[in-house]
């Protein structure tokens, strides 16, 4: 099984590199290929992925490896279809990242989800559907004014969709743990946003009741109906977020000395009530009887109560920490007049931290709340005062907290504070040094690597495990950070990028081999983040990065396959879920693939017909220069016809929100088409007039779907400087395609 996991990680990395290479290549918009070549290449790559998936699904040797490789190649085929659709929009200059792109992409992803029941397809579908809705309501390519009521309804739609998905997964009608967790989190985030009474004056107060009802229902269900510690924890976080969000909402309206005092009193009452409540619960125990002497059902109830108690204590602690810290800092800042507030904060910090470190038997909720408030005040103070000796002193106090406290969350919090404290100290020491930021990140990366390695010197203990986890997390984070820093010495930027890629790749395989799942997952997450973020990096052009990633992907897949062949590890057919998934509905898989190819052909054919038969129209433009993740560099165009005259604006204002409209354009004496009027159904046009379809943004402009012109990487500035006119083809129905830009 260990060898099987190693090969699966290798195959996953290799296929991911190939997909990244494909996206980078098409986004580069290489001028060496014409329209037909690009479209054929994208369709061919998609067919290649699906064909390779079918090929490996048929192989009977090394079943566990081949079926897994086949499954991820099937996902790769769906991703390559999305790249092909993005390329079609790039070739024909459709809107960048338009909702139609993600909608078309989501259809086969959803179909493949239902056919295969494979989690990657569920996750891909979830992302694409949500991006589709977001781009529909809030498109990147245009600004559409939304009323508060419309925003509230949009938020309700997102909340409802995620509630339905959660209920489906909870009821086992949809078997996907990732969707279950994500939909639950997004549902509560949507409710929290909708409860903002400042933004939604009419519905906000009522949504507070809905939020509280949802949180209460979650506690009841996950405690009384189906005990689930993880979901209880998420529900507790939702409750904490609601309480803090409401506190900040009140703070924005009632900030004053009295308000902060009331905030601290509230925290004190909360912690006191928490202490006496659990003390009361403990007195309701079963006396001196051991668990073995207790009835089985009673012992179960005791364990049940312990879980609930832990969750409640977590909520109280989180709420107390956040509200107490905000109130404490706010009170000092508002009321300090004779004494500098940073000095007051530092004194308060020591008064809070030192007693709590020396009194370990206090109620944990009270102790951790006061400690965290003290550390927060201290970090603000030393950052404000900018004095190295005081920073060093506070670092010693923070390190003492690491040894005095216990628990993964506590150690992660203090380890983060130690790193922040060291960073502040280094900035104070290197303040006037050239490339100070780069040196500091490098030093901290080395320090954390040393911290991570030092865990081997400790015996078997929770502290050793926590040091390993925290050291690894910050080492990976700082190594990744280094890949964005300026050169410390010639070539250091390239070296750090290469070092990060090699180190994270080796660590991922190493942790998988050792069976350390948490560390392996962290390494893989940073590996994928690195691949994704390098898209925006100017280290190389997209074309060069595409070639490099493709070669790396093929090398990784070949090396992994060789390893798999030599070890001959496999999974019996009757236990291989991937093999069963791929052979379950082959006809439906073929139909979905054919539909994807059909869409590519239809889109290309209809666009070519419009380009060849549409009326040529010349328009004046004002270009900008952004970038699309999937489609590369483009010039965003604003036309003179996009801003209609006042009379037309009055007519447009009668439209409710975003509405499709038809505009009449008239050719002027210079051959440039100008906005004439809004088209009324049935009216006749003169020979120099045409109709063009558009969308009213609900504010003051019209978008025609020709506002995006894709250019080869790095040429956007030149295009922006030289282009003055756009040449557009407009069909008889009013649909339009942007053909080219020109300076005359």
Secondary structure topology:
Blueprint: H1 2-28, H2 35-58, H3 63-91, H4 99-116, H5 119-137, H6 148-170, H7 177-194, H8 204-225, H9 229-254, H10 257-283, H11 296-335, H12 341-358, H13 364-385, H14 388-404, H15 408-429, H16 436-454, H17 462-482, H18 492-514, H19 517-533, H20 542-567, H21 577-584, H22 586-613, E1 615-623, E2 627-628, E3 632-639, H23 646-652, E4 659-667, E5 673-678, E6 689-696, E7 702-703, E8 708-710, H24 716-722, E9 725-730, E10 736-742
Antiparallel strand pairs: 1-3, 1-9, 2-3, 3-8, 4-5, 4-6, 6-7, 9-10
Helix pairs in contact: 1-3, 1-18, 1-20, 2-3, 2-22, 3-4, 3-21, 3-22, 4-5, 4-22, 6-7, 7-8, 7-9, 8-9, 9-11, 10-11, 11-13, 12-13, 12-14, 13-14, 13-15, 14-15, 15-16, 15-17, 16-17, 17-18, 17-19, 18-19
Write a concise synopsis of the structure shown.
With 744 residues, this protein is of the alpha+beta class.
Structural class: alpha+beta
How many strand segments?
10
Return residue spans where pLDDT drops below 50 for at least 5 consecutive residues.
285-298
Main β-sheet, in a few words? Answer: 6 strands, antiparallel
What oligomeric state do these chains adopt? single chain
Shape: globular
Residues in helices, as a percent range: 55-70%
Please tell me how large the radius of gyration is.
Answer: 30 Å
β-sheet strand percentage = 5-15%
Termini, distance in Å? 66 Å
Give the count of helical stretches: 24
What does this 3D model show about the protein?
The protein has 744 residues and is of the alpha+beta class. Among the domains are: 1-97 and 541-611, no CATH class; 614-742, no CATH class. The chain contains 24 helices and 10 strands. Strands 1, 2, 3, 8, 9 and 10 form a 6-stranded antiparallel sheet that branches. A 4-stranded antiparallel sheet has the order 5-4-6-7, with helices on one face. β4 and β5 (673-678) form a beta hairpin. α15 packs antiparallel against α16. The protein is globular and about 90 Å long. It starts with a helix and ends with a strand. Residues 285-298 have low confidence and may be disordered.
